[in-house]
Structure prediction request, 762 residues.
Amino acid sequence: MILNVVRNGLKSPRVLIPIEELLGNADGSRIPEVQPALLTKAIAESIKDACPTSAFAIEEAGQGSVLALDYGKCVGCGQCFAPSEGAVVPAHILACCGASRNGLVKRWDVERRQEIVADEVALDQAAKEIRAIVGRALNVRQLDAGSCNGCEAEIAAMTNPYYDLERFSIHFVASPKHADMLLVTGPVTRNMAEAVKRTYAATPSPKLVVAVGACGISGGIFDGSHAVVGGVSAVLPVDGYIPGCPPTPAMLLSGILRVLQGQEVNSKTSSKV
Amino acid sequence: MTPGTPFSATDTAEVFGILSTQSTRLVSIFGSIDEAGNPWVHYLVDVASHEYRVLHVPAAGAIPSATFITPAAAWYERELHDQFGVTVDGHPDPRPLVFHENWPKGVHPMAQDVSGVPFASGEYQFLKIDGVGVCEVPVGPVHAGIIEPGHFRFSVVGDTILHLELRHFYTHKGTEKLFQGKPASNGTMIAESVSGDNCFAHAVAYCQAVEAACDTSVPVRAQGIRLIGLELERMMAHIGDVGALCGDVGFMVPAARAAQLKEELLRMSAKVVGTRYWRGISAPGGVTRDISTSDQSLLRQTIASVAREFAELAQMILETPSVQNRFESTGELKPLVARDFAVVGPVARASGVHLDVRHDHPYGAYRNRPFVPVTYHYGDVLSRARVRIDETHASAVLLDQALGELPSGEVLHKMSVTTDAQGFSAVESPRGELLYWIELRGGKIARCHIKSPSFQNWPALPLTMPGNIIADFPLINKSFNLSYSGCDR
Prediction:
């Protein structure tokens, strides 16, 4: 009988995804990527109008208009693809996650058809301390502040044999008392706000808080509901952001590593002209 | 229909008469406010497993409780009071359900403006179990694993559970109110965020409700693609659940293998439709994405190989004595209790209740497709695991058929919704009967009620607990695999 178990275990193919294929990969998330070369004012307007979560906005700057995309509000609904005439496509690579909220907003000059590159972001103090203490052996406590469980499903998938989170020395722990990082999903509901604060208080310092998904970052589609307090930053200081609805396991992993390394959030883009 | 009212009114006497009939199952009770500002209570019932009926009762005054006729009404009536302020006379447990102590008394979000409601405080009264050696064990809302929040209050003697009281709605997000005022086309993405791990079932149920309200037909190819998405979602959910059950008894080889098989289906979905969980694929009027012929054969091959490997794995799991020892006779849900609480889905079918929307109320591509629901009779963890194992196989067979005979044609009828209309639609989600009831006014959503299988099944979980040991709770809970967010909304 136990031989069957061993045989079954040995029979399973090796499916581990190499690290270089994993980092930054956004396949299957439908997070948009803007092709600035194809932007026109009319297209920018129709992209903005098609977006049901106001993730796309048009800012009138001095010389002309700027198309802004807040990845922290985008739920990957895909409604911007059709009216964009090819100027917005599903992203294969998403470099846009990490240590700062502002870093999640990208901007494109519509007239010049190019990206407006943001300044570099400094390494967070808590991330520095945690790196100094644990190197890369990170204990993570997942905290659901009111999520729809889409993010939970993808966080759980990080432990499957394709992603094998443990190869990065990252472990999920059962108690906030054992954690270096709180991975917080969902808009914070009224009913969870107190429990979220207590969980944070129970986590020893130095600690990192990472807001996961559109809901965790901005409240997402639940922002403004009477039963929701807001994104994670409404109740806790946040050190990192991972966009997506839900972020795929590859995006989650890339995001966690990036927050830990305090890497610059906006420097590598695949869509520069 | 009375002039000036949107519904043909009946009274609770007639409703209770219907509910008292042996063959009637309560599906949902929910409220709404009509244009004149009058509150209504709607009773949705399933008559003899083949006909849904909605009965409308004006609720200007108090209504009598139906809980003594069917215990399944208990949570619905408490929610009705919390959300609409409708007084339910004679309810055995009138405590607030959805809103916790932070919510001021007498504030009912569906009946009034609730911007800027202040935080209140207070203490929740749990049921007190007295006796020599009885201890209370509070668990949650923050749990040890990667799972959703909810509170469980156990009363135990030693390891043995005497009583379990649930306290949920920590993830309540006011979702039903969020639908209101949105154009019908934008409701899909809210529906997809009710319970993210079976978002496609929610999206399809919502879209079908809009289509039913507007009397719109869906292209046959889109119906076929919806069936493919729904059955794939069921396979992923069931394979994941069986693996997680093994994980809960410390049997890690099959847990890892099942997670791998589930991931294969997720990755294939990403390849074929561009999203792992089929988000954004269903839309009122059809689907937003076609499946190419080459992708159809890729789907067929992958599904066949995953189904074959899972069948081998499942056989190994079921033949393992330590699994049998933990699964058998654990957390029994008796058929009578299952019927009293009108439970649905795999939980009902594991307790011998023949109930499957695909069979009883076929929709879309399930029409004219012979289909026999899987049932077991013992109602224990093993039966619930077996239902999921057998249904995974059945889904693979359905998928193979559907992919082999996918009709040609367009996939989306563009809809412009401008009417005043009501409609509802049910689908069999991986957790069971999922129903959306929708009311449109001028093309905007005036009311959207979600009957979630988890809301229906949670109250039955505590009844499986007495006599079991506390260490088996995670296993029993996992075998129900209910969504907290789907319940709390």
